[in-house]
Description:
Layout: H1 3-26, H2 31-68, H3 71-119, H4 123-133, H5 156-196, E1 198-203, E2 206-211, H6 213-233, H7 235-259, H8 261-266, H9 270-322, H10 328-345, H11 347-350, H12 352-376, E3 394-402, E4 408-417, E5 423-426, H13 433-441, E6 447-452, E7 457-460, E8 469-470, H14 471-476, H15 486-495, E9 508-509, H16 511-514, H17 517-531, E10 535-539, H18 547-564, E11 567-571, E12 583-589, E13 598-604
Parallel strand pairs: 5-11, 5-12, 7-10, 10-11
Antiparallel strand pairs: 1-2, 3-4, 3-6, 8-9, 12-13
Amino acid sequence: MPMPQRLAQFQQFLRQVWRLSAPYFSASDERWRARGLLTAIVVLNLGAVYMLVQINEWNRVFYDALQNKDAAVFWTQLGRFTLLAMAFVVIAVYRFYLTQLLQLRWRAWMTRDLMGRWLQGQAFYRMELARYAGAAVPTTGATGLPHPGQREPDNPDQRLQEDVNLFTAQTVGLSMGLLNAVVTLASFVGILWGLSGAFSFTLGERTIELPGFMVWLALLYCIAGSVLTHYIGRPLIGLNFEQQKREADFRHHLVRVREYSEAIALDRGERVEQRNLDTRFTHLLANYLRLIGKQKQLVGFTNLFGQAAVVFPFIVAAPRFFSGAIQLGELMQIASAFDRVQGALSWFVENYDSLASWRATTERLTSFEAAISKQNTAAEPTQQAPAATDSGVIEAHGLNLRLPTGASLLAATELRVAPGEHTLVQGPSGSGKSTLFRALAGIWPFAQGQVALPARTMFIPQRPYVPDGALRDALAYPEPASRYSDAQLQDALRDALLPALAARLDERDNWTQKLSGGELQRLAIARVLLRQPAWVLADEATSALDVAAEQQLYARLKALTERTGGALVSIAHRPGVAAFHDRYWRFVPQTEGSAARYRIESAALA
């Protein structure tokens, strides 16, 4: 790859790091505390380097005392070393503690910030919809067609939990390591230059003298090591990125098996799931083997490089020591200074594996943050958000519905439901009935038009979400359970035909796994009976119930909406449900070449 292109990539990477890092230190409510911690860590790093300089000087005096057999200086220097070592330990301890504290606070703020933006305005739903649909969710434009773009980032759980943790830890650790290396280099290069003396050699009839030759040797040594390290280790960036993705995919499928354990067991799907999990795990291991293969090469080279650096200064300085030009103390000081200079210059070599992992993490987190920002900052939403209206009706004007692929379901559709007009939505399976409800709720991104929705409206989805925890919280969701008395909660459960749960309000469990499909649907209806909305839109809300229970619950839902001045709008296939409705919306297929696949026919039920 040409050097200008590599430089452009490096600059882009630095911009990514800045984009992710700057908000915490410049715009967050913790910015002053963050800056204070960062300043303290920098000061402690400078203090640690200063102590190393003092220990380097101590080397010369201590080893000269040994060579001269000067006991008084020897014991004095041991006492001085004790003080230096204790000071260095204190600095190291508090540098570690404050660094970890900064990482913890930064991670906490960044996780909450990204998590809040991910949940804001149903961004999490739009991103998942786009990813599984294989298309980009449109954010601007007047046509309603999805804009071309990349698929949304996968595994947001990993981005929020693992990648944020890695990014904050690696950014602080590597940046402080680089600062330490730069300061160490600046502190010791002068010492090494002064101790090196001059190196003379004859070129033809001319004598050339090279001052500070140990510094030049350290520089050449580290440049050669850095170039070879980059050549050996550059595949690690892509391999680390891919490894994180495959780890997340494997973990995600394990969670799905746990969530759908009953369905898998009933279908006797263990072998299929074993095969699917094994396939993902095999892919994970295959990439990991390639990763450790490259890491093995890199570790081999970096260890060879490090071990050679131990004896290299002694080999170069030995002739001066044996000639009597320098004493043992100065030889040890040269070796110590060379080690510090070489260590500072070799920061890239020693941290290449960490840098590769950091870059992969940064790219994953950057793509996730960019996807959230795209959803949060949509300039022209494809559909006006439903608003609470005083008209007390459900209305849709000029409603266009499309699939993520761009195919049109409905075109220029006009709909209206007045109080008391209980409406049944009918049509072939897959015709878009649930999509219509999503558009009415204002969460379907592939829609255009205007929707008016009364304030006291509740939707009952096909698959209700029931959070883990106390049953009272699952029943009151998303409102706090403290808003309702125990009597209200228990009455709602009894009215929803769940009397056995009325005495278990404080019991904590995984209710999605604990309850049957019918019980979950009845729990969703219990929420409606608890909150007493005027309008209820039910999407096959009783499909898992027996006919008698369905009739009883629909009678209660209809009575509720009539009492509160609204109406019941239902998607249902069972004929018995029609008895609780006065009108229907029927999805009627259109001929090929029409503006949309369906039109909605509205009329009174016979």
